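User: I'll paste a sequence; please echo it back and then give the predicted structure.

Assistant: Echoing your sequence first, then the prediction.
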Amino acid sequence: MKHLLRIRALPGLAYLGLSWFLLLWLNFELPASPIVHFLVLPVLMLMSGLGAALVWQRGCRCD
């Protein structure tokens, strides 16, 4: 049963891993600009929130 829960949580973990990798990488690679602050970073933060929600919804089953 726990193996099935881990498989169901994989998409959320993938979103979390990808978004945090991109956030950290872009933080050190891109120069400060309005496009980065108002477009790229909020999209990656929303992607991180989506990943956390998927992990909670599919992996926890606390309901």
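The radius of gyration is 14 Å. The chain has a mean pLDDT of 78.
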